[in-house]
Amino acid sequence: MADMPWPGAVAVSGGGDSLALMQLLAGWARARKAAPPLVLIVDHGLRKESGREARQVARWARALGLKCEILTVKGAKPASDIEAWARQARLSLMGARLARHGLTTLYLGHHQDDQAETFLLRLARGSGLDGLSAMQRLAPFPHPDFAALAVARPLLAISRAALQDYLKRRKQDWLEDPMNGEARFARSRIRALLPLLAEAGLTSRRIADAAAHLARARQALDLATAAVLARALHRVEGRQEDGVVLLDPEALAAAPREIGLRALAALLGTVSGAVYRPRFDALESLFDRLAASGSRAGSRTGLGGGVTLHGCRIGPAPVRYQAFGPKTLVIAKESSRGRGRSA
Q1: Range of weakest confidence among 11-15, 59-63, 200-204, 336-340
Q2: What's the rounded Cα separation, in Å, for the pair 323 and 258?
Q3: What is the mean pLDDT of residues 263-275?
Q4: CA distance 90 to 312
Q5: How far apart are CA 11 and CA 154, in angstroms?
Q6: Contact (CB, 8 A) for 44 and 86
Q7: C-alpha 196 chain-centroid distance
Q8: Rounded-to-integer distance, Cα 37 and Cα 191, Å
Q9: Alpha-carbon distance 298 to 301, whole Å?
Q10: Mean pLDDT of the region 82-86
């Protein structure tokens, strides 16, 4: 906790992990005479019992002397991909509430078993290094509307069983969401496999350790990527040019391919404001075209008049913007006017 921002809010669903975190944060703040955590409870309205359960969680929070707020998701529920919809809905509600209270950090009860489940889910989806690397103890808030916020996960080294033992010792009940056991959800199917994997020696701890190793490799690649971007980019100053970036395609192509691809993805994300990376096949195609454009010393045949990808427009720079000579490319956020060909 010493390395994490405070004060903050804690997301509490009523499950054992988030209730344990609420208890631990309340005790930590009390022992240090610090501000107590604000408890945020989201009622998705997906089950008829959800409102009653949210009120029960609020009673548990108030019994600890904590302020709490129940946030209710409004609007129609989707027929499919409910997990992703629910996640974005609660992030939007909680992000807005943090901003209203002047708090910067949302504490989440993710633990070691969650880390292992996330690794296996992403492995099944064909994720690369970034997806397979561990959830971080402190990370940017995963919603594009709240770039100034962060999420903290102080329980990543602790197992689900250990957290439940802690609650039992404190005689604290918790709620079991029946949706967590439904086979229609990918995470539920992965969770059901973990005991079998553990019998073969692939325990949650070993999987989480592997994710942590990949996270360290990712940090090294991020440093190399930042160095490439420092050489290959030039930002255009001025109110009308806000967000416009100039790119040296030769400097990008000279980097090892993995670093170059990561640099391009980071650049597109920064310009567009998108949270997620572009599709890998489209990213590779654009990277190859940029590299070809730069290798021909300013030839514009690789990109024509310009292409679009990931909410960005990429094309040859006009003379006034040629910071890297005729080969210079300009990248700007795509507008509704003058959309170019997709990359």
Answers
A1: 336-340
A2: 25
A3: 88
A4: 28
A5: 13
A6: yes
A7: 29
A8: 30
A9: 9
A10: 83
